[in-house]
From TrEMBL, chain A:
SUPFAM superfamilies: P-loop containing nucleoside triphosphate hydrolases. This is Glutamate ABC transporter ATP-binding protein. GO terms for molecular function: ABC-type amino acid transporter activity; ATP binding; ATP hydrolysis activity. Residues 6-250 form the ABC transporter domain. Keywords: ATP-binding, Nucleotide-binding, Transport. The keyword Lyase does not apply. It comes from the Bacteria. Belongs to the ABC transporter superfamily. The keyword ATP-binding applies.
From TrEMBL, chain B:
One of its GO terms (molecular function) is transmembrane transporter activity. One of its GO terms (cellular component) is ATP-binding cassette (ABC) transporter complex. Belongs to the binding-protein-dependent transport system permease family. It comes from the Bacteria. InterPro entries: AA_ABC_transptr_permease_3TM, ArtM/GltK/GlnP/TcyL/YhdX-like, MetI-like, MetI-like_sf. It comes from Streptomyces griseoviridis. Pfam families: BPD_transp_1 (PF00528). Residues 79-285 form the ABC transmembrane type-1 domain. It is a multi-pass membrane protein. This is Amino acid ABC transporter, permease protein. Keywords: Amino-acid transport, Cell membrane, Membrane, Transmembrane, Transmembrane helix, Transport. It is found in: Cell membrane.
């Protein structure tokens, strides 16, 4: 097998006395879609944020495409990378937030064009056509000059996906991308995500949309209390879960 | 819907059947009578008329003297100095204020503490005391030297040459202003949603660019009203430099009424200039705030001109 796209090894994290992750291991292969499910407080979002070093692990390693994230080996130490180096690593990892976090003061087009310009230093005349093309892809070409707050939640999230894609990342992370949306707007965002999955983008998605998991996921990972309880292909994990804990969770939400 | 008769305070209206409702729908809507409002308006108008009448007819205001000095040469030069001090005080004060705000927000304890200390000291010392201190710096250090710290000096100049009255005034105003500006800027920065920085970091946007492109433009929305407050307050506050015999607007009017005894007329000269300048700044504030309001809400409020045009073309309600 080739190098995994993501390799998480024995990751621990606590905030003060609260232990959020208690030793998580996970492997995601290139081109796969992994869906993380589990009750709130299970540590799904924390784990996701650790993959692009928005959260630091207390113990354990995160590797993306074989590259250690956030640290480098320096003799007998693991030395944390400088901010500039962390920022560079993040440009290869797209992140989509639950509450979009589009830059409120910039137009939709500038939101998409900002990171390629300032994080990758690419020239404007190359970036803006790319940004328009991405907006076209998420079906929002006509909203290029609008400001984020003039859009619906679903439209904002589609812009956020286009913004993440603008860096041409090798990996896309979604943190409950549809949880802040009105029910009738969820579909348009999931459609965009499905089309991305179909193009072979490696994705890790924290979500409660079981339909999406069943239809798109290559593997589903069930987490509870800071641990991975079980994982497997969706038909197996969602239909015939091996653990009582998983069964209880699925019964509650299905 | 019930078809029973319906009464709150007015008539008992029978809406049973379509005819009754049709009749009501055809009526024109008029606002409720507000006699109190009319009475209060009339009272205010009378007060206003009285005041204006007094301004015009009372010879004590000495309008001819006012006219003589309003744009007189020494007053204009003094006005220039006031504007100069305000401009320097604001520009230097807010630049230094930004640095101190960033120090206070720094994750490193030493800059954060120094920033806090600066704000504490310069908000504590009265401006007038500070000005006298800078003005008298030469008593404390008669020469100022620049060189390697604790090592050899490279240049040395007499303090008086470097920090004259004007230098002392600018220094004092700027350092004082910086402490307040720092707090205003800091409040603006912490009011920006944390998700904005998180998203910028996730996209790998460099720290400095996060600040200049994402955070500060959004912080401006809450910084600007306070900053203009400070600017206007500084404009009038510059009159404090008269303690160093610097000829600003207020000092110059004092000099003139000291000579001719026309106190009221000359105080009015200064007052009217301050009113005009504050008015100009308020207009500037409106447009600057409007510029930074982009993206803050769904649609920008119309400018007064747009509002006027809309009102004239009879679409006032639609434009709002």
């Amino acid at each position: 097998m080739n190098t995994p796209m993501v390799e998480i090894v024995d990751v621990h994290k606590s905030y003060g006395a609260t232990s959020v992750l208690k030793g998580v291991d996970l492997v995601v292969n290139p081109g796969e879609v992994t869906v993380l499910i589990g009750p709130s407080g299970a540590g799904k979002s924390t784990l996701l944020r650790m993959i692009n070093h928005l959260e630091k692990a207390d113990r354990g390693l995160v590797l993306v495409a074989g590259e250690l994230i956030g640290y480098r080996r320096a003799g007998k130490h693991l030395r944390e990378l400088r901010e500039r180096e962390v920022l560079r690593q993040r440009t290869g990892i797209g992140f989509v937030f639950q509450d979009f976090n589009l830059f409120a003061n910039l137009t939709v087009l500038d939101n998409v064009a900002e990171a390629p310009r300032s994080a990758q230093g690419r020239p404007a005349k190359e970036v803006y056509p790319l940004a328009r093309e991405l907006l076209e892809r998420v079906g929002l070409a006509d909203k290029a000059d609008a400001h984020p707050r003039q859009l619906s939640g679903g439209q904002q999230q589609r812009v956020a996906i286009a913004r993440a894609l603008a860096l041409e990342p090798k990996l896309l992370l979604f943190d409950e991308p549809t949880s802040a949306l009105d029910p009738e707007l969820v579909g348009e965002v999931l459609d965009v995500m499905k089309s991305l999955a179909a193009t072979g983008t490696t994705m890790i998605v924290v979500t409660h949309e079981m339909g999406f998991a069943r239809e798109v996921a290559d593997q589903v990972v069930f987490m509870a209390d800071g641990r991975v309880v079980e994982q497997g292909p969706p038909q197996q994990l969602l239909r015939t879960p091996a653990h009582e804990r998983t069964r209880a969770f699925l019964n509650k939400i299905l | 819907m019930t078809s029973a008769s319906f009464h709150a305070t007015g008539d008992v209206v029978d809406t049973s059947g379509r005819r009754g409702a049709h009749e009501l729908l055809a009526l024109r809507r008029v606002p409720a009578p507000r006699p109190g409002r009319w009475l209060a308006s009339a009272f205010l108008l009378v007060l206003l008329a009285q005041f204006l009448h007094g301004l015009v007819t009372n010879p004590g205001w000495e309008w001819p003297v006012f006219r003589e000095f309003f744009v007189e040469g020494s007053i204009m030069r003094a006005l220039g100095l006031t504007l100069e001090l305000t401009a320097y005080g604001t520009a230097l004060g807010f630049s230094l204020g930004l640095v101190i705000a960033l120090m206070r927000l720094s994750g490193s304890w030493l800059p954060a503490s120094v920033g806090w200390l600066y704000v504490w000291v310069f908000r504590s010392v009265p401006l007038i005391v500070q000005l006298l201190f800078w003005f008298n710096l030469a008593y404390l250090y008669d020469r100022l030297s620049f060189g390697v710290p604790f090592g050899p000096e490279l240049v040395s100049v007499p303090t008086m040459r470097l920090v004259g009255p004007m230098g002392a005034a600018v220094l004092g105003l700027a350092l004082h202003q910086a402490a307040y500006a720092a707090e205003i800027i800091r409040s603006g920065i912490i009011s920006v949603d944390r998700g904005q920085v998180l998203a910028a970091a996730a996209l790998g946007i460099p720290r400095r660019r996060q600040l200049s492109r994402i955070v500060l433009p959004q912080a401006m929305r809450s910084i600007l009203p306070n900053a203009f407050n400070e600017l206007i307050s500084l404009l009038k506050g510059t009159s404090i430099v008269s303690v160093m015999a610097l000829g600003d607007l207020f000092y110059q009017t004092q000099v003139i009424y000291g000579r001719n005894g026309r106190v009221v007329a000359l105080v009015m000269v200064a007052t009217i200039w301050y009113v005009i300048l504050t008015g100009l700044l308020s207009v500037l504030q409106y447009y600057v705030e409007r510029r930074f309001a982009r993206g803050g809400s769904r649609a920008l409020p119309p400018t007064p001109r747009q509002r006027l045009r809309a009102a004239l073309s009879g679409t006032g309600k639609a434009a709002r």
